[in-house]
Write a structure and sequence with these properties.
50% of the residues lie in helices and 6% in strands. The protein has 82 residues and is mostly helical. It has a two-stranded antiparallel ribbon with strand order 1-2. The longest helix is centred in the first third of the chain and has 14 residues. The model has no long low-confidence stretch (mean pLDDT 91). It binds FE2/S2 (inorganic) cluster (FES).
Length: 82
């Protein structure tokens, strides 16, 4: 199914890009911008973002790596101490 009609990106393209990026770097934070870049494209109108992100979230490889989870709380705690 086509997700981004401006750039003719399908849900399959998105999943393949996510799987490729996760295989290349298991600690990568995967964003829509990185997916566009990996596909050699750039977003145009942005009208697809809600569906684009929804498609991303359906991929099990999108999860934030365990060692990077909870960093926001660590940063807040450091600000309180400082
Ligand atoms: S539909 Fe994706 S950028 Fe326009």
């Amino acid at each position: 199914m086509i997700i981004c009609s401006c750039q003719a990106i399908s849900d399959r393209d998105i999943h393949q890009a996510i799987d490729w990026m996760r295989a290349a770097d298991e600690t990568a934070i995967i964003t829509p911008g990185k997916i566009y870049h990996a596909l050699g494209k750039a977003p145009d109108c942005g009208g697809c973002m809600k569906l684009f992100v929804s498609s991303m979230r359906s991929n099990a490889n999108l999860e934030v790596p365990v060692e990077l989870r909870g960093l926001r709380e660590v940063c807040k705690a450091k600000q309180v101490i400082a």
